[in-house]
Amino acid sequence: MSTEAVERRLYNALWWAKVQSAGPLEVDPDTPAVAGLTRAASPDGSTVWLVPTLPSGAGHSVLEELGAPPVAVEQPNETARLLAICVTCCWTDRSAPAWPGVTGTLAQIRSVYAGMRGRPEQSSDLTLIIGSLRRLHATHWIRWDEKTAEVRLGPRVVTWTATDLSTLRDLCRHLPEPPPAELSTRPEPESDERQEVLDD
Fold first, then answer.
1. 38-87 pLDDT, tens per residue?
2. How many CB atoms neighbour CB 110 within 10 A?
3. CATH number, position 107
4. Do residues 47 and 194 lie in contact, with contact meaning Cβ atoms separated by under 8 Å?
5. Cα–Cα distance between 65 and 55 in angstroms, integer?
6. Composition bias, kind Basic and acidic residues: at what positions (predicted)?
7. Strand ranges, E, within the chain
8. At 36, is the secondary structure helix, strand, or coil?
9. Is 177 a domain residue?
10. Contact 40/52 with Cβ under 8 angstroms?
11. Is 85 within the bounds of a domain?
12. If you count DSSP H runs as helices and E runs as strands, how many of each does the chain have, helices first?
C-alpha cells in the first residue's frame, strides 16, 4: 500500500473517531472530504457539518456505535412529536431538501403543539416542549437557540432518505399550519445546493 493511501486511511480513521466520540462535527469549509461522512454546509456557508452516512437498515447498536442514536430515549414519544413540529416549522419548501431549511420560532412550535393536541396550551406544555428541544439539540437533530427562542433543523437531517422525506411530507400535511415566524434576526434563504454526499 502506498504512503499516500496509508495517510488517507489514517486521516479518515481520525475523523471517524472524532465523530464517534462527539457526534456530527462543525468544521471549516476547507476541511478535506472524509470517506463515509456527508458534508452539509451551514446556512451562511461559513462552516460545514460532517455527518456519518448511515448504512441502509442500520440497527440501534450500529447507530449507537456511530454516535447517531435515532432519537433521545428519554420521553421518546414527546421528543419525536417535537421533531415533527420542528420539521413542519423549518421545512417550508417541501419540494427542496430539508437541509438547511429556514428558522422557526418557539411561538410557532407552541401554536402547532397546541393545535396537534386539540386543546388550549397548558402550563406544563412549555416545560415539555423546552425539554424535548434541548434533547433534540443535544443529538444534532435541531439547532435550538434558547436566547432568541429560535430553531433550525440540525445537520443529521441530511441523512434522511427519499423515503423518509416522503413520509415527513405526508406528516407535515396532517399537522396544523404554523403562524408566520417573527424572527429576532433576518431570515436566511433556503438552498437546494447545500448537501454533498461523499463517495467512499
1. 898 988 889 999 988 765 554 445 445 555 555 544 666 788 899 999 99
2. 18
3. 1.10.10.10
4. no
5. 12
6. 185-200
7. 25-27, 37-41, 48-52, 104-105, 142-145, 150-153, 195-196
8. coil
9. yes
10. no
11. yes
12. 6, 7
